[in-house]
Amino acid sequence: MTSSTEFRYPYGRQERYHLQHIHLFAQNLEQTLAFYQRWFDGEVMWDGLYGGARNVFMRIGIGALHFYDQAPRDMQANAFHHLGMQVVGLQDLYERMRAAGLHLPNPIRESAGGGYFMVQAPDRVLIEAFEPGPEREPQVQAYYGYA
Question: Considering only CA atoms, which of 42, 13, 11 is closest in space to residue 26?
Answer without folding.
Answer: 42
